[in-house]
């Protein structure tokens, strides 16, 4: 017997690379290419470092209130965490305590099975259909909970509100979590359903549409009974999750609605333009309702395209996994970044004799 026998061994989630060099076009972690609202800078400059000696508000009250106001909710229907990863991990611990398996798609955010393993939650992966769509009827079987992103990641494929409602309504004895990390780029949120379905949790983030991946703020919206349960787990783990600077800048960001809308609109326009250009070059792709494209080129291995783009200092995401091995996930950057990407891809296809 050695102390090593008592060490927990886990296979961790692997986040996208954060290169040190500045001269990289970084399209690999779905960050927003634009800075956050100017109000965020103002809020940051108004901070007094003398206040940092005191703990922040454990309830993150100001930020919770600002989010509740923005989404037409009561404060008791909102929970905030350190990015939606933190919120989702809390949700797994709080809501998935059954012996029955939690259901999620087989191609989806690759953190779900990591949390399930970490918290020893049984799970079952439900296959997507041949066009990478989630099939709502497949979630009508005994389960200990359901979670899926809408739009899904890394496919970008969106379920309609009716389809989401079908999954929620057909699982009244389980908590259903809709991970809406990318919903602001053209999807319809399931938020209006939370007053009708007490088993629904909608999770969103400041990391994508609000340009604040580096600040780490995510939030859940649900019936207050579920929010209370989440808070009790959080307070059993770490009371002070949101720092004073994060509280200040998060609150400033959520109040700048005009900036947020304009930023999302620009990204959607660049996405649609890039998708048109890539289809014209012969790429296949899903219809993405997110801030990334999920693309492949007939006859060219995804790993080759990935390596070539990397050699040109354009970083995208590629998974050496069955079914999606020939696909790249490309974050929508600025118009200029997309022009550089398209030029590099055009050159590659020409050299390869594909056009
Ligand atoms: N859900 C999905 C589907 C994601 O792609 C991501 C980003 N990696 C997250 C949640 C977590 O994002 P964050 O913790 O930055 O809010």
Q: Can you describe this structure in just a few lines?
A:
The chain has helices at about 40-45, 60-70, 85-95, 110-120, 160-170, 225-235, 245-255, 255-280, 300-310, 335-350, and strands at about 25, 80, 100-105, 125, 145-150, 175-180, 200-205, 220, 285, 290-295, 315, 330. With about 350 residues, the chain is of the alpha/beta class.
3D structure, described in words:
This protein has 355 residues and is α/β, with parallel strands linked by helices. Helices cover 35% and strands 13% of the residues. The protein has 10 helices and 12 strands. The protein has helices at 38-45, 61-71, 83-95, 112-118, 161-169, 224-235, 244-255, 257-280, 302-311, 335-352; strands at 25-26, 78-81, 102-105, 123-126, 146-149, 176-179, 200-205, 218-222, 284-285, 292-296, 314-315, 328-331. The strands form 4 sheets. The chain has a 5-stranded mixed beta sheet with strand order 2-8-7-6-5. Strands 9-10-12 form a 3-stranded antiparallel beta sheet. The model has no long low-confidence stretch (mean pLDDT 97). 4'-deoxy-4'-aminopyridoxal-5'-phosphate binds at residues 83-85, 109, 149, 153, 179, 181, 205, 207, 213, 218.
Search tags:
binds 4'-deoxy-4'-aminopyridoxal-5'-phosphate, 355 residues, 12 strands, five-stranded mixed β-sheet, alpha/beta
Radius of gyration, CA atoms, in whole angstroms: 21 Å
- What ligand molecules are bound, each kind once? 4'-deoxy-4'-aminopyridoxal-5'-phosphate
What class do helices, strands and sheet pairing give? alpha/beta
Distance between the terminal alpha carbons, to the nearest Å? 63 Å
Mean pLDDT: 97
Largest sheet: 5 strands, mixed
DSSP strand content: 5-15%
Helix content: 25-40%
Placed side by side, the strands forming the largest sheet appear as 2-8-7-6-5
Shape estimate? globular
Low-confidence residue ranges: none
Overall number of strands: 12
- The total of helices stands at 10
Query: What is the string of SSEs from the N terminus onward?
Result: EHHEHEHEEHEEEHHHEEHEEH
